[in-house]
TrEMBL record:
Assembly mode: Homodimer.
Source organism of the structure: Paenibacillus terricola
Similarity comment text for this entry: Belongs to the purine/pyrimidine phosphoribosyltransferase family. PurR subfamily.
Sequence ranges assigned to domain Phosphoribosyltransferase in this UniProt record: 113-239
Protein name in UniProt: Pur operon repressor
Presence of keyword Signal: no
Length: 274
């Protein structure tokens, strides 16, 4: 590209880093791209690093050596995350969102790109220190959330289906017991979508007792894959006599009470904030 003034170069470098999270970019690549000396590039990166960290955008890691460079890790500060989730909680407490069985209507919220971007940054922050190869979710409502998280972590997404699609070739299918209604259901995953031994981050939109997520974990066992973590947008704290099937997970919001008659709901920030 053509040689830019420093102010323009800083803007372009920032956009370049933001659009390539978790990718190692060498100083040589930047120097060639902007036709500038490495010393000038290093000074620019120091400015960007300071702004990223001061504003809670993320971290810019520098790796020394011939094969080194910089890597941008998206993150979100606690204050910004709390502001977003408090807004989410207020929206989820709207009476018209209450559905039979104590579920909440969330489809419209999971269709908002700006909100999804913030939720993805939260999960990326929570699991930033873990080795992950792929994001997994089950169709259908969790798909946008999984892709938002994958965009921040620069990872591929695999989708567990409720039934096998002929267009996906051979698949592994298992039966699992839904934790909320105790019904036996089926889920499947195409053999070509996940390599053996992969480290998988499971992302889901809603967790009641955790039966669906436990089913995904059992399905991963058929691939000898490892669960690197579990993240859920909203968890239910109202289980009655049911027992939670999972203990190790990250939730962004938690439903603590649902009154089906009055349609009053109480939603608080999840354990991400603890």
């Amino acid at each position: 590209m053509k040689k830019l003034k420093r102010s323009a170069r800083l803007v372009e470098m920032t956009q370049y880093l933001l659009s390539r999270p978790h990718r190692l970019i060498s100083l040589t690549a930047f120097a060639d791209r902007y036709q500038s000396a490495k010393s000038s590039i290093s000074e620019d990166l120091a400015i960007i690093k300071e702004v990223f960290e001061d504003e809670g955008i993320g971290e810019l890691h520098t790796l020394a050596g011939a094969a080194g460079g910089v890597r941008f890790t998206p993150k979100i500060g606690q204050d910004a995350a709390m502001e977003t989730i408090q807004t989410v909680c207020r929206q989820l407490e709207q009476p018209e969102r209450v559905l039979p069985g104590g579920y909440l209507f969330m489809t419209d919220m999971l269709g908002q790109p700006e909100l999804l971007s913030e939720l993805g940054r939260m999960f990326a922050t929570a699991f930033a220190g873990r080795e992950i190869d792929v994001i997994m979710t089950v169709e259908t409502k969790g798909i946008p959330l999984a892709y938002a998280t994958a965009a921040c972590l620069n990872l591929p997404v695999v989708i567990v289906r409720r039934d096998n699609k002929v267009t996906e070739g051979s698949a592994v299918s298992i039966n699992y017991v839904s934790g909320s209604n105790k019904r036996i259901q089926t889920m499947s995953l195409a053999r070509r979508t996940l390599r053996e031994g992969a480290r998988v981050l499971i992302i889901d939109d809603f967790m009641k007792a955790g039966g669906t997520i436990q089913g995904m974990m059992d399905l991963l066992g058929e691939f000898n894959a490892k669960v690197a973590g579990v993240g859920v947008f909203v968890e239910s704290g109202e289980l009655g006599t049911e027992e939670r099937l999972l203990e190790d997970y990250v939730s962004l919001a938690k439903v603590t009470a649902v009154d089906l008659k009055s349609k009053q709901t109480m939603v608080i920030p999840g354990n991400f904030f603890k």
